[in-house]
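Subgroup meeting minutes
Present: P.N., E.W., G.H.
Scribe: E.W.

1. P.N. recapped why we're keeping a running log of single-chain structure predictions: easier to compare across weeks, and new members can see raw inputs and outputs side by side.
2. G.H. added today's entry (297 aa).
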Amino acid sequence: MSTPILSKAIKLAFSIALLATAFTLPVLAEQDNQASTTKLRVIAYNVACGQWATPEKIAELIKPLNPDLVLLSEVPKANRGKEVKDWSLRVAEALGLEHVHVGSSSSAGHKSPKWGDPTGNYGGKFKSILSRTPLSNGKDIEAEGTGWKRAKPLRAETVIGGKKFAIYSLHLPGYAHNKKQPTKIEAYEGSKHKALAEHIKAEDDDCEVIVGGDFNEWTEGIVMQSLLKDAKLKNATKEKSIDHILYSTKSPIKLIKTDRDWGPKNQNPKNLKCEGCWSDHPWVYAELEIPASKSSK
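Output recorded in log:
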């Protein structure tokens, strides 16, 4: 091939390459835009000390939701002298979640044999956090206020979509079981829920928050509404419930889907409170869309 012809061929190839690049740029931009958010699936579940279901049964129930974060309350731990695998770890392994942190405070000091599983190996009402992403700085925090003692929420940290999150799993006393519900803000002022809000308000400005568990307060009640306003949170749980998943409003986190269900019925006639469910509480679920942090883009 002569030099002039070769030169023309090179110029033509270069022009075609530039044209192809121009046509592909919008596609790449769309892909980058899609990658700028992270989907997060969260479940909060009061498992009633494992009285009516094994960890594997609990995992089987919620596995179709493919959770990234599971916040358990009234979760039992191995009783003293029992050489068995941790109850929460068994749930996590069955769900394919690698990171687990279990609290050290049992709600109201409850323990076996009254508050335990049928095997006698596990007991108590602890809190735990199961996560797809690594957990750090896990600890029980103080929440002083009305109601039974030993109601310490569990807090841990993780990074999701390049953002730092403080994760809380809890079981707090409230007015849900009182026939007469409070109608004045004073009910919130002296509550453990307000003490929890103070911890959340003290989080770093760049730290998002997710809180889940058994609040023992109704969705539309004065205490829950005051907590949301005080701590600048939103409630993913829309139905009348005492179990909730809350998330912060510091950045535009979007609620994609929410659900609440009791699970299978009539599997165990001894559990009369909910017609044989695997717990006397429903699980609550939220799918969130998390915007990427500026540093991760």
